[in-house]
Amino acid sequence: MDSEEILKFADNLVFAKTGKHLDNVQEAILIGAWQGQKYPKIAEEAHCSEGHARDVASELWKILSDVLGEAVNKSNFKSTLKRQQFSIVSSHYWKDTVQIGNVNICPETLQSINFTKTRSPSPPENTESQIRQDLRDAPDISSFYGRTSELATLQQWIVHDRTRLVAILGISGIGKTNLALHLLPQIQHQFEYVIWRSLGTSPTLHNTLKSLIKFLSNLPETELPASTDELLSLLIDKLRSHRCLIILDDVQTILSSGQIAGNYRPEYENYSTLFKRIGETCHNSCLIVNSWESPREIVALNRENTRVHTLRLDGLGAAAGEILREKGLLEPEKWETLINTYRGNPLWLKIVAAMIQELFGGRVAEFLKYDTLFLGDELKARLQQQCDRLSELEKQVMCCIANEIEPVAISQFLENVQLSPDDLFNVLPSLGNRALIEKEEQDNQALFSLSPVLRQFVKTEYCREGR
Ligand SMILES: Nc1ncnc2c1ncn2[C@@H]1O[C@H](COP(=O)(O)OP(=O)(O)OP(=O)(O)O)[C@@H](O)[C@H]1O
Ligand SMILES: [Mg+2]
């Protein structure tokens, strides 16, 4: 253990007991004691009198003795801490708190200390009959190709790293719902409860919580708390006492249009508390959020919290060929062009494949001869739904990119669009959050472009209005 680890460890113990963090004098005492220093030297380091250092130390040893359940003093502090270190390493993997002496501490708070990274093997799995499932809201399972690395990543996060909140993000049709559906059989045995809910009908947080708790607690509606805050606290209790997996699909429906990505519709702001509490509170459960864009709390939590992760879904790549095969397309040697043009988006490919099948009898080369991009009403309607959500500034930037043949650099945007750098620096990440723009690095500068499908759509639908 180095000084930082000792202080972090002791700080957690003291905080658990007193609700206060270590001050400078206490820190100097602990480091001094670890290094075998005498009180005059410790007082010098702490810039205080020896008498004061002794008084603070005596109070500190008392707190640590209470917490650890054994007498701690300056001479045995080092050996006591080393012994406690060993007992934490051998504590059980799945407990939501680690017992140290007389206090329970969330393992999360100890994460910066190296020794907590050692973990015992995964817990025993639940059998089919032990898992309580509510998948009424989940769509039927359909064919599934590729996504091997995404499944492995999700499994690693959820089963091994005990991630509390995972956001699966991506443009409509990229396969978020399908991925979550196919993930379930691989991880559900780790959980006691598995619940799938779609926010497609924009339920209020109150109703979502009620429906989750009714299933988790088996309580009749009349016995549920009346306030949303109480319902949320009850949910968090359940997530602590049972290992639950909750999937919330179609989360973009509670997020607003006409603003930068990640903001909530006015009456849905309180979902932010749900995400924050699930991401920050100590529990054993996991919430998976499927959305076109990341709610702003999840962006922030993802930055700061090791138990919150985001998976951005790209296209299927070569595995999308299996979709074309399933749709009866011919000439596999031409499929790569089709897959690249439609960016491996399974839904887009299904739509174009159906048209190629109908008009060209599945002959891909014949369709490609026309050198045109087929969107069709269904795809246009899908794209419209997503692009209508954009703010005015986002639409302007999209048009600016669509009108350029080559990818656009930040300096070009500032010349071509009436935007301040500040606005642009908000808009570009927002469009990235919505997975509507593509970014590449060239000659040490970032360049932005649109996929062929979006370029055509934006040009015809949005750029006519003089943007
Ligand atoms: N890996 C895959 N293999 C084969 N088909 C897939 C795959 N992923 C998605 N699909 C198919 O593509 C279509 C769109 O997938 P899905 O509904 O999961 O997308 P989504 O990202 O959830 O879209 P939305 O955001 O609109 O809900 C579905 O017909 C689905 O069966
Ligand atoms: Mg979906």
How much helicity do the residues have? 40-55%
User: What do we call the CATH topology of the largest domain?
Assistant: Rossmann fold
CATH homology superfamily of the largest domain: P-loop containing nucleotide triphosphate hydrolases
Structure annotation, total helices: 20
Largest sheet: 6 strands, parallel
- Total tally of structural domains: 4
Share in β-strands: 5-15%
Poorly predicted residue ranges: 86-97, 111-121
Name the structural class: alpha/beta
Radius of gyration: 28 Å
CATH architecture of the largest domain: 3-Layer(aba) Sandwich
| Mean pLDDT over the residues | 88
| Distinct small molecules bound, one entry per kind | adenosine-5'-triphosphate, magnesium ion
Count of extended strands: 11
- CATH class of the largest domain, please? Alpha Beta
Strands in their spatial order, largest beta sheet: 3-5-6-7-4-8
Using the alpha-carbon principal axes, give the shape. Answer: elongated
Whole-Å distance between the termini? 60 Å
How are the secondary structure elements laid out?
Blueprint (H helix, E strand, L loop, with lengths): L2 H16 L5 H11 L4 H8 L3 H19 L8 H13 L8 E3 L2 E3 L26 E3 L13 H13 L4 E5 L6 H12 L5 E6 L6 H13 L10 H14 L2 E6 L21 H10 L5 E6 L4 H9 L3 E5 L8 H6 L8 H7 L4 H15 L3 H5 L7 H12 L4 H12 L4 E2 H7 L4 H13 L4 E5 L2 E5 L2 H10 L6
Parallel strand pairs: 3-5, 4-7, 4-8, 5-6, 6-7
Antiparallel strand pairs: 1-2, 9-11, 10-11
The structure holds adenosine-5'-triphosphate and magnesium ion.
The site of adenosine-5'-triphosphate has 21 residues, from helix 7 and helix 14.
